[in-house]
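Quick board copy: two proteins, each given as sequence then tokens.
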Amino acid sequence: MSKEELKIGEISKPRFEFRTFGQCFKNAEKRMARLSVPVPEKVWERQSEEIYIMSRTNDINNTKIRDGKMDIKTYVQTVSGLEQWNPLMKAEFPITAEILEKEVFPAFQVKMPKLTQTQYSFDEFIAMVDEHPDLQAVRVHKQRFGYMVNNTICEVGNVLINGAKVVTINSESTEVDDILKTIRDIGLEGVENINYLQAIKRVIGMINKPLAN
């Protein structure tokens, strides 16, 4: 069976990912840029403002809000140290109480607050999160630079987590071996694989653990 040809910015079957966070990955960044094939101009640099909803009791469902839309992905498996995540839910605001009750709060794995309305605006939802003892809304600004190495979709990102600056670097693909080769080629062997959930929790103190450097 031939391998899927990945294209940046297009949906493929569920991918595996290596990602890490720290203060500096300059050597790996330089190698990634030099080894990359040309990529579409639209992914040279992208910026976004997002809100991640952190739950003290959940590490398997990743919830973020961008451009008024909520996106939840769920952890599937780890293969050769690489994580696979699948889409779980997408919804727009205002969001119905039924979706909150049946999909969103179960994904957070926390006690359901009392819902008194049939639907909730973005501001009303964030207020509900702020009032919940096990939830925290975290503002994340991303400046991402896209590359493609060994037919894996790669990026280097400058990330502000509630204003705290960190750097992320990643490689993702449907093919595990291609990611592992990319990790070797850019010099990140032995570096901890840290997803966004874990990185944000470490930065805000919800997890007492450092980043990769």
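And the next:
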Amino acid sequence: MRRIGLLGGSFNPAHRGHRRMSLAAMAALGLDEVWWLVSPGNPLKPAEGMAPFLARLASARAMARFSRIKVSDFEAQSGTRYTVDTIAALQQRWPHERFIWLMGEDTVAQFHQWKDWRRLARMVPIALLSRPGYDDDARAARAMGWLRHFVRSSAMAWHWTEWSAPAIIFLRLPPDRTSATRLRALDPDWHRRFTSRKRRMPSTHKE
């Protein structure tokens, strides 16, 4: 049984904040791996300004090199677009692994808009990863009106595999203010570095 953290996102582009946050969560939760689930298309984000999927996938693989972070095109392969469906498919394919959903505090404000978000919370524990300036907003988020009843102590982080979902934990991680939005503003054509590469990208996971 592996202990696996799941971090979904557009990775538009992947950056050092994703890496640092993932490695810090790996240490705090005693994870064997973190899987980055690169979304083919986030239903809550506009298509305008979204780089091609293969460029985002390549940027994630470049950023994750030489670590226990595994970059996955699972959603593109399985045809899922919503997190609740992706997790169900992952649990069906890897029934003996233990998954925990990793989510930045900056995304909690929209969590109540996610498809079947309460069912999602009942499927896997959730770790909220601190983002500078978002702590108060995360705790005041609409979804937290329900989720706050299932908050676990950060002192018990290593024991998350013993929890029954719903279970949520706030992880205080080293601050990193890297922003994909700012990176795109500084380099709008960043994706050309990846789309111009003619290379075969093998599937991440094997049976």
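Board note added afterward: The CA atoms of residues 11 and 197 lie 18 Å apart.
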